[in-house]
Every structure is written in structure tokens, then in C-alpha cells.
Amino acid sequence: MNVQPPNELLQRIGNGDREAFGQLYESTRDQVYRTVYFLLNQKQDTSDVVSEVFMELLRSLPSYNDDKPFRSWLSGLTVRQARNWNRKLWRKFRLFERSKSMEIEELQEDAAVAVLREEDRSELRINIEQLPFRLKAVIVLRYYQDCTVEEISDILNIPAGTVKSRHHHALKKLRLLVRQPELAKEDSVHANG
Asked: What pLDDT sits at residue 192?
């Protein structure tokens, strides 16, 4: 999000100027989409969450503090919307699993679809997706949004030291996943148990 919209543009949006909102949307859409895509558990929901981000932007615009960078504010909205979406899906998943326990059936995926899906995924992205959300958010903001530690701290509302710690822990976990995927899974099980 390399855009730093002038206060005039934000004021025009606040006054209902659709053209101003269109300009803001066009200049920030790709970065918001990319961030949401990397943070979501269900990739097919990316467009829905991006829409939610921009609706929340409109609702939250009156609370925007123009003393802070717009990029950090929008990134914070994006991360919160992705986190909320993942939580909502997890609750639905648990309810579905309970109802499904009555009738268990084997679902087989079409082989061609599976091959195409695997071709679309890079090893790194797969490993990033395995990280817990709190670590994944730091990695996505740092490397896909090019945010500084201070910006990440503001976006996630955590101390800079915590950002550095999560960053270090995430990189350590990613290195382990790349070198020895089976060992990393065992390490994760022991850490959680």
C-alpha cells in the first residue's frame, strides 16, 4: 500500500464522494487482496473479505486519526477482518463437524483438481499457512506489505519487542518446516501439548 491519501481525499470519501472512494480502492485493492489472501485459511473467501475490509473502511473512516499513517491504519483493518473471518469460519466448522459425526462419508477429490491446486502452491506459502495466525500476521505484514517493526507494532497493537519475538519465532519455525517438515510437526505437537 504505497498510497498515502491526502486528507482531502479522505474528507471527500467521508462526504460520500464515490469517485474519491474509487480512487482509494484502485490504489489499495491489490495490497489488501494480497494480505487477505495470505492470512485466510479458506482462500476462496478472499474476495468476500476484501469487500468486508472496504466496507469497514467506510464505517471506520470517522475514527481515522490523520496523525498516523494511512497505510498502517488500513493494514490494521485488513488484519482484523481476516482474523474475524477465520474465527467465524472456525466456529462454523466446529458446528459442522458435530453434525457430521452422525454420518461419516468418504469424500474424494478429483485428481486433476488436486494436481492443479498443488501446482499453484509454492513450498514457502504452504509453510507460511502452517504458522499460527499471530506469527503469520507478522510475516505477511513484514515481507508482503514491507511494513517496519514499528508499523507492525501499531497495526497489531502490540509492543515492538513482541513483533521482533514473533518475527524471530516465525522465521525459526519456517526454517524448520523447510528443512524437516515431519520434525516441525512433531515440535508443534509437543509445544501445544
From this structure: 43
Residues 112, 79: Cα–Cα separation, whole Å? 33
- In the structure, how many helices (H) and strands (E) does the chain have? 10, 0
CATH fold of 110-193, please? Answer: Arc Repressor Mutant, subunit A (1.10.10)
- Could you say which of 3.90.1150.180, 1.10.1740.10, 2.60.120.430, 1.25.60.10 is the CATH number of the domain covering 1-105? 1.10.1740.10
CA distance 67 to 117: 43
d(CA 170, CA 127): 10
What pLDDT does 181 receive? 58
User: What is the residue type of 161?
Assistant: G
